Amino acid sequence: MSVIIWLLLIPGALWLAGRVFGLERGALIMLFAGTPFVAAWTLVPLLAALAARRWAAAAVAGAVAVGMAVCVLPRALPDLDKGPTEGIALRVLTINMLYGEADAAQIVQLVRDGDVAVLAVQEFTPRGEASLKAAGIGDLLPHQQLTAARDAGGSGLYSRYPMLSQSTRDNDGGFQQATATIQPDGAAPVYLESVHPLAPAGPDMYDGWRADLREQPAAGGDGPVKILLGDFNATLDHAPLRDLIDTGYRDAAATVGKGLVPSWPAFNGGKGLVTIDHVLVDERIGVRAVAVHSVTDSDHRAVFASLTVPAAS
Q: What's the DSSP call for residue 264?
């Protein structure tokens, strides 16, 4: 029995070490997205050891389970500090359109119902652009920075407010990211970027994935506050994303205790398994609320965030 318990325990212990020290490499990159499931699994050897009265194994299993809980559970609990509560309300939405196939009318309805002022889109194709236009997105968000592509690399930003500057940035991995600086009524300027690093789906993509995340703009500085929103192809259990957040961002969903709500894969109204779509906000921005919505004909769910940005000085 002792041998079986130790065999059950060892995988979780190794996983915890990899998670704590950011050791995900190669095929482990995708597997690490499932860390919350592994955290739940670590209770199995703990309970088995306690039931069998194998106290040494129980002590180790308990330490592993606690360690995994420390890594995973905080994102499911609201932060005491959600950022500034005084300022100007700004509501944003991001959706990966799955090669432009996502239901544009449903996206526009989410914009309308949520009083959304900024929409970020990824996997943005000419078809997706045309369908959003036909659904009336321009009536709600007339200011646009759009770079449609016929593959998964297209990107776009739609805004209620005029864009003070706008461009498109090319990732090393080949995808494009629309960027813009806007100034909501009564607010200081806000920098936006529709984020889409390369997916770590195979050996030829691992380096590009890591480079793309490393090249995302750091938070802080004396310039406009920043909001990065999109399909990051990474969860909070991936070290490169945590490193980006550590420059001075909040993950909006984790801030309000919704960091374990999955966003992918979510076909046919499914809820998904892992959380790879995020809204990251500069620490000078407050988070009021987050919601995640299924969108027909996309494998990603849309992420909505209600934020408080600094007022103009």
A: B
Rounded distance between C-alpha atoms, residue 163 and residue 189, angstroms? 10
Both 147 and 277 in one domain: the answer is: yes
Residues 182 and 99 in one domain: yes
Question: Which residues have C-beta within 8 Å of that of residue 278, sequence separation ≥ 6?
Answer: 195, 228, 229, 230, 232, 241, 251, 252, 253, 303
Contact 98, 121 (CB under 8 A): no
CA distance readout (Å), 295 to 124, 198, 272: 15, 22, 12
Residue 75 CB contacts under 8 Å (≥ 6 apart), including other chains: 236, 251, 253, 254, 257, 259, 260
Are 220 and 250 found together in one domain? yes
- Please, what's the b/e burial string for 58-80 (b: 16 or more CB within 10 A of its CB; e: otherwise)? bebbbebbebbeebbeebeeebe
Residue range of the domain that includes 39: 2-76
Q: Are residues 71 and 116 in the same domain?
A: no
Could you tell me which residues are beta bridge partners of residue 289?
306
Q: Which ranges of the chain have pLDDT less than 70?
A: 1
CA distances to 57, 112, 151, 307 from 135, in Å = 60, 11, 22, 26
288-302 per-position pLDDT tens digit:
999 999 999 999 999
What CATH number did the domain enclosing 116 receive? 3.60.10.10
Structural domains of the chain, count: 2
CA dihedral sign, ordered 152, 246, 229, 155: negative
Q: Are residues 12 and 136 in the same domain?
A: no
d(CA 159, CA 102): 19
> Are 104 and 33 in a shared domain?
no
